[in-house]
Amino acid sequence: MHKVIVSVVLFKHSYADLKPTLESLFLSPLIEKIILVDNDESEWASTLINPKVVYVKSDGNYGFGYGHNLAIQKYARESDYFLICNPDIQFTQSEFQKIVNFAETRVEGLFLPKIVYPSGENQFGARLLPSPLNLFARRFAPKLADQLDQQYLLKDMDLSQPVFVPNLSGCFMFFRSVNLLELEGFDERFFMYLEDIDLSRRCAEKFGTIYYPLATVIHHHEQSSYKNTKLLKAHLQSALKYFNKWGWFFDLKKTKLNDKCLDQAIFKRNT
């Protein structure tokens, strides 16, 4: 049986917040350890009694990527696969088994199942790598964003079968551990937001990234940065860091990866 280790970063989360996710993780015989990284005020996790749980208290809230990196650096070598998991995820064991079974047949480094809301509505977790216009329009020009999202969120692409996609959502990143270690985890310069896009694109370029829509995971998700001024500021700061790193208007690697995705595409027919 292949070993899976999971990391979940906590920040002022209560047990009630995390309960649905923990129940999903506890029930899987494939998951050997669940690393709960406490970035702030979730000390209850240190008293959680379950043989799978490992509690790690970070030195402070230095970001989402920083917290997961603590777990990756210490535990990823013990596993075949490493799941970076949000604290608001739910899944059945049959769906999780599908993901592991599929990864066993592939050579790529990162896999993402179909991510849906509790209602079953698609969250479009598989995306192209963004341009500055994609991200800033989504914050400040919703009508323009709706037009751009048709391509950015691959809404016109038939995603009914596994396919290469360079930008996979950070809420459920199922990595081959050896590849994640070679990538050295997240770039900790991103405190919050876009660190998942950065890591996904690095993996896409070096090892490959696959969207696997034949398994489904529920994400109890709300886009807080749209409503909270402080989080919006953090989102904008991360966007500046991302485009300063990869390029604002001349990002040839982005173009190559996006074209690779679109070139293999089967597009939905208008009816």
Structure explained in plain terms:
This protein is α/β, with parallel strands linked by helices and 271 residues long. The chain has one domain: Spore Coat Polysaccharide Biosynthesis Protein SpsA, Chain A, CATH 3.90.550. It contains 9 helices and 11 strands. The strands form 2 sheets. Strands 1, 2, 3, 4, 5, 6, 8, 10 and 11 form a 9-stranded mixed β-sheet that branches. A two-stranded antiparallel ribbon has the order 7-9. Helix 4 crosses helix 5.
The major β-sheet equals: 9 strands, mixed
How many strands?
A: 11
Residues in β-strands, percent: 15-25%
Oligomer: single chain
Mean pLDDT: 92
What's the SSE pattern? EHEEHEEHEEHHEEEHHEHH
Low-confidence stretches: none
| CATH fold label | Spore Coat Polysaccharide Biosynthesis Protein SpsA, Chain A
* Approximate shape: globular
Count of helical segments?
9
Instruction: Find the structural class using helix and strand composition.
Output: alpha/beta
Number of domains: 1
> Helix coverage percent of residues?
25-40%
Query: What is the CATH C level class, in words?
Result: Alpha Beta
Task: Return the CATH architecture.
Answer: Alpha-Beta Complex
- Assign the CATH superfamily: Spore Coat Polysaccharide Biosynthesis Protein SpsA, Chain A
Give the end-to-end Cα distance, rounded to a whole number of Å. Answer: 46 Å
Cα gyration radius (Å): 18 Å
